[in-house]
Amino acid sequence: MVRSAISKRLGIPFEELDFAKTEFGKPYLVNDLKTHFNLSHSGDFVVVCIDETNVGVDIERIDNLPVEGIVDMFSQNEIDFIKSDGSTFDLERFFRVWTLKESFLKYMGKGLSLDLKTIEFYITKSKIAHVIDSDLLAYDKNFYFNQLELTNDYIISVCREYKTKEKLQEFYFNGECDEEYLFE
Questions:
Q1: In terms of DSSP H, where are the helices of 11-136?
Q2: CA-wise closest residue to 113 among 38, 20, 26, 19
Q3: Is the pLDDT at 121 greater than 80, yes or no?
Q4: pTM as predicted
């Protein structure tokens, strides 16, 4: 799916695309370093984001799992958000925070080698705000986070840098470019 989408976008024959990986395993396109992409899969779904700036995407199925040990890697603010009633974990809220963090880690291209507490999210019904540990970035970046509940069972989060709030260049869902999900 990635090869096909990038081939079409750049007008480069499928077989001439040259991919490589960073030291942490993030794939990139050798033919055109100005084209950035990221992909994620969960269950029966695959998503790919292609943009002119770096991008990270995560999709997760809201599934019953023991989150107690995982939330230790979250800030107290995030834990309070996930424990919506003050005592029990809300899985939908957990996966909202998790996919945002994962999209950021994938944007950075360093996977789980980064401490999950280096970025903290403040989530309301209408806004996603974030605070990033200033020691993590050697220079200022503007990050833009989007989140989408694909179905009642899946959440997608996208992290990208932007100069203006332009739409994500291309968003592929299960092999099809989907205009409906192009985040602004």
A1: 76-82, 91-108
A2: 26
A3: yes
A4: 0.85
